Amino acid sequence: MTPPLEGMVPWPADITERYRARGYWTGETLGSAFDRSVAAHADRVAVVEGDRRLTYRQLAGLVDRLARHLVEREIVGGARVVFQLPNVLEFVVAYFACLKVGAIPLACLPAHRHAEIEYLARFTEASAWFLPSTFRGFDYVAMAEELRAGLPSLREIWVAGDRVGSGMTRFADLLADPGATRAAATTRAVTTARAHPQPSDVAVFQLSGGTTGLPKVIPRTHDDYLYNSRVFAAITGVDRETVLLVTVPISHNFPLACPGIQGTLLAGGRVVLGPSPDAETVFSLVERERVTWLPAVPASVIGWLNDPRITRTDLTSVRTLAVGGSRLNPEPARRTLSEMGPVLMQVFGMAEGLLCSTRAGDPAEVIVETQGRPASDGDEIRIVDDDGKEVSPGQIGELQCRGPYTIRGYYRAPEHNRAAFTDDGFYRTGDMVRMHPSGNIVVEGRKKDLINRGGEKISAEEVENLILSHPAVLNVAVVAVPDEVLGERACACVMLRPGTTLTLADLTDFLLREKRIAKFKLPERLQVRDRFPTTAVGKISKKDLREEVRGLS
Ligand code: OOB
After folding, report:
1. What is the CATH number assigned to the segment(s) 30-197?
2. Does the Cβ of 350 fall within 6 Å of ligand 1?
């Protein structure tokens, strides 16, 4: 057995044994599960993107080719690889190639910019980076050129697209070259051995929505992430007939593994990739590819419902519209049922693990009003008050969970882990929930300090720390303001230094040009104040502040 990755919190030995004995963990790696699926479904279509359409055999051919290059370059066994590709075929190839040789994809977003990538690549000591040349008008090659000098562990930059910088490699050139020609000379036996991951090894690094100043890295093992996809595929009816459409950012846990791309490809189904979740893209791809399974955030669904083309589009192939990432209110939920039929499934999940969902055949009331129940009989949940005591049935409290696919700790974060996990290994989700009489969970709010902007999570503290470094700013608090479509948007409330001024345009400019953060984190409102409401101990009371800001809006 290889020792666990340093900085990773493993499950206790007795629990590991139990999860294996009960068959949650099968002792298989994601790479070998992928190979078995390829063998069983070789001539079926695996991935469709634009006019590219690959069978399992063709996909596996590319995966294996890339895997050989990874081995040649010693990007194997525990090496971290920044994934910043959008929804393109190259993502799927790179993902399974890494899983096969034990390199760990770090699930970054195309939306991330210098600040996020620099921090995350440095924190994880990433050795390689997959990126597009350009996407939505942004030049990733230029960003990589700027950042690479400050990232000493970064050895390889692989670009999907035609334009590369010096010392970078075109993805297409790697795939054109069968590799392995240099393998005999350069690959030591040691590298080859390290290129065979164990089921208990970290397979993927997901990112936490984050409640602290810096994003947290979530280690998902082969055992747990494979089970995550399998159990969710089983309860949501994903099989070889499934046609999954992914238009949300592909590296998010939801479209990647719940059951997502992983679950669909392991079942012999078909994955269709689309560039954006807007109505036009989704409607045309559903019609063209006869899509059956569709993950979405509520903001997208509301957009589709409000688009007049919905009545002219044939959406009858859809069997499951899985909506999650942020709260779907009962009103759009009801409209979804009347426009699209009984296909709605609410999903309440988290990159840390636990997945809850309603099930096909549940009463309409459950599907409309609740966020569902845990996916596995191995999931343990409890709803607790501020003292950690379980609340009485139907009362609101914080949700805590543990189970065969919920992490026991963030990567390299011992101090944060002491606060985020209980002594008996439950993850404190920060979500305030109540148990519906049907046994399903209703998400009522949250304790954690973040803004959920249409499913994309923004840590208030992270943005506050950046705003505090603006010369005009004396103090700041970032709070969520309600939004009909996105659910929430961020509002920055600031106190200014005497004699200074600040507009939203100034602040945006500062955060984008000087701090270089992802655009989705930008506050969309600014409120200049001369005082903040405070708590009894003199801290800013975000609860009162949120109410004051809402009152003024
Ligand atoms: C998903 O994962 P994350 O890690 O981006 O965010 C998790 C958080 C939850 O703790 C909760 O605060 C919120 O997102 N959330 C919901 C929700 N689904 C997620 N809040 C209310 N209603 C829902 N249905 O967002 C995620 C991961 C896997 C599957 C689906 C979503």
Report:
1. 3.40.50.980
2. yes
Cβ–ligand 1 contact at 230 (below 6 Å): no
CA distance to 267, 369, 511, 547, per residue, from 310 (Å): 30, 24, 38, 36
d(CA 375, CA 491): 35
In testing the pocket of ligand 1, which one of 350, 401, 458 has its CB within 8 Å of the most ligand atoms? 350
User: Is any atom of ligand 1 closer than 6 Å to the C-beta of 433?
Assistant: no
Which atom of ligand 1 is found nearest the CA of 456? 5
Q: Is 443 in the pocket of ligand 1 (CB under 6 A)?
A: yes
Every domain of the chain and the residues it spans = 30-197, 221-380+399-416, 454-551
Distance in angstroms (rounded) separating the CA atoms of residues 256 and 250: 6
Q: Is the CB of 81 under 6 A from ligand 1?
A: no
Please work out whether the CB of residue 210 comes within 6 Å of at least one atom of ligand 1: no
Instruction: Please determine whether the domains at 30-197 and 454-551 fall in the same fold group of CATH.
Output: no
List strand residue ranges (DSSP E) for 227-283, in order: 243-246, 270-273
Task: Show pLDDT as tens, one digit a residue, over the chain (553 residues).
Answer: 667 899 999 999 999 999 999 999 999 999 999 999 999 999 999 999 999 999 999 999 999 999 999 999 999 999 999 999 999 999 999 999 999 999 999 999 999 999 999 999 999 999 999 999 999 999 999 999 999 999 999 999 999 999 999 999 999 999 998 876 554 545 566 677 789 999 999 999 999 987 788 899 999 999 999 999 999 999 999 999 999 999 999 999 999 999 999 999 999 999 999 999 999 999 999 999 999 999 999 999 999 999 999 999 999 999 999 999 999 999 999 999 999 999 999 999 999 999 999 999 999 999 999 999 999 999 999 999 999 999 999 999 999 999 999 999 999 999 999 999 999 999 999 999 999 999 999 999 999 999 999 999 999 999 999 999 999 999 999 999 999 999 999 999 999 999 999 999 999 999 999 999 999 999 999 999 999 999 999 999 999 999 999 987 5
Give the H/E segment covering residue 132.
Answer: strand 128-132
CA distance 514 to 522: 13
Between the CA of 431 and the centroid of ligand 1 the distance, in Å, is 9
Nearest CA to ligand 1 atom 12: 431
Separation CA 515–CA 469 (nearest Å): 10
Ligand 1 neighbour 212 (Cβ under 6 A): no
Ligand 1 atom closest to 430 (CA): 10
Separation between Cα atoms, residue 276 and residue 86, nearest integer Å: 10
Q: Would the CB of 397 count as within 6 Å of ligand 1?
A: no
Distance from Cα 58 to the centre of ligand 1, integer Å = 34
What CATH fold (topology level) applies to the domain 454-551? Answer: GMP Synthetase; Chain A, domain 3 (3.30.300)
Residue nearest to atom 30 of ligand 1 (CA): 349
- DSSP annotation of 534 reads B
Domain 221-380+399-416 grouped into CATH 1.10.8.60: no
- In this structure, what are the phi and psi dihedrals at residue 509, rounded to the nearest 5 degrees? -60, -45
Output the six-digit token pair for 158: 């692989």
